[in-house]
Specification:
The structure is a single chain. This protein is of the alpha+beta class and 102 residues long. It has a single domain, classed as Alpha-Beta Plaits (2-Layer Sandwich), CATH 3.30.70. The chain is 25% helix and 30% strand. It is built from 3 helices and 4 strands; from the N terminus they run βαββααβ. Strand 2 and strand 3 form a beta hairpin.
């Protein structure tokens, strides 16, 4: 494994009239220690955020900033369920990585 061995994934759903607003905010958001960020559109308003981090400590250090960011964009999101709220987050060590080339 490389030094980039930790990731987080967050599933969320945007309100139909808040998509542009969300991307305006996220495009300006930088988390120290995050080396890559991807957002996949998985449905009409459904998205999946993937962050690659230097290590577990980097994401732990940024937790307050990530909570502040969620507070900033929470109003743009639909509730996924009463149990989850507006996000379904998971994180962990990357245990398999394959690089494909064009």
């Amino acid at each position: 494994m490389t030094a980039q061995n930790f990731m987080n994934v967050v599933r969320f759903k945007l309100k139909s009239d808040c998509i542009d607003q969300y991307f305006e905010v996220i495009d300006k958001t930088i988390f120290e220690g995050m080396t890559q960020r991807y957002i996949a559109k998985t449905g009409d308003y459904d998205y999946c955020f993937v962050g690659i981090w230097k290590n577990a400590e980097a994401i732990a250090d940024q937790r307050p900033a990530m909570i502040a960011h969620l507070d900033e964009v929470r109003g743009f999101m639909e509730e996924l369920s009463p149990e989850l709220g507006v996000t379904d987050p998971v994180s962990g060590n990357i245990v398999s990585k394959v690089g494909y080339h064009d």
